[in-house]
Design a protein that fits this description.
Layout: H1 17-25, H2 27-40, H3 47-56, H4 63-74, H5 81-104, E1 108-109, E2 112-113, H6 115-119, H7 121-142, H8 145-168, H9 176-200, H10 206-233, H11 236-239, H12 245-248, H13 254-262, H14 265-276, H15 284-294, H16 297-315, H17 323-337
Antiparallel strand pairs: 1-2
Helix pairs in contact: 1-17, 2-5, 3-7, 4-5, 4-9, 5-7, 5-8, 5-9, 7-8, 8-9, 9-10, 10-16, 10-17, 13-15, 13-16, 16-17
Amino acid sequence: MATIIPLEQPRKHRPNAALEVLTSLVAEDVFAVNQLIVQRMESRVDVIPRLAGHIIASGGKRLRPLLTLACAALCGYRGQRHRKLAASVEFIHTATLLHDDVVDDSALRRGNPSANALFGNEASVLVGDFLFSRAFELMVEDGSIDVLRVLSHASAVISEGEVLQLMTTGDSATSEQAYLEVVRAKTAELFAAACRIGAIVTSRPASEEEALRTFGLNLGIAFQIIDDVLDYSAEQERLGKTVGDDFREGKVTLPVILAIHRGTEAERAFWKRALNEGDRRDNDFAHAQDLVNRHHALRDATLRARHYGAIARDALGMFPDSPIKQALLDIVDFTIEREF
């Protein structure tokens, strides 16, 4: 088990301020990327822009493309290549969301009906494929083999992560190590690639490219751990998705793993029935919430997230102080303190 390295104490204000500040620092680029996304969603097949537009407009934080823009600014980039690449990152992310919702049979996405609930599973999968294709078109237009290598590798690893998650779903014996392998592949790899691109387009030294990869990877791990905590602790209205989805889908996340390891034989039998056997009853989610709280699993999972957040913060140490660097450091706090 890794040593837990806590971050500074959470700030009790400004839950969205860090995201707003970072966005404001690259506002012109954000506007250009949003325009580019709208343009590249166009198709002569009417359902494609309607379905893609539905999920892209559904209130997401756009954190991954924002990280591409911000990391390029951190490296002193002055061109426009990063805009197409940020759009490519967002298309990859959106495609995975469409596929995820089909696999998970999700009815809500950020508080709105999911695309598959409105348009059907078949259309959602195919539009996800369309967005992957658009992402690769943008990479090819950029013309950098290094960019293509990083983003294509990330896309492959994400798919591996989805399959790994399927293999651990419904298995209450899943270890924390296996869970982290899923998180690194399914979520953190795209964060790492999104940040790494900032150094690539600026032709920065390998040490800076690796520092941004490390920043993004550990930020992504922290982000996913908090997502998994929120599924047991947040209110549905704030979270923007159905609370308890992970439990109902049989996903074995870090709060569950900690509760299982710390529980009694009777409690482990409950998790086995609910997760392995899929025998979930009306009051089971409330009981699951009680168990993760009783064994301090949410608190300690958040401490794990702070550990990875500290690694992310340290990775930016080689860059000179600047408003963009401070905003990226504050994004680490936002990722861990957020309530949605």
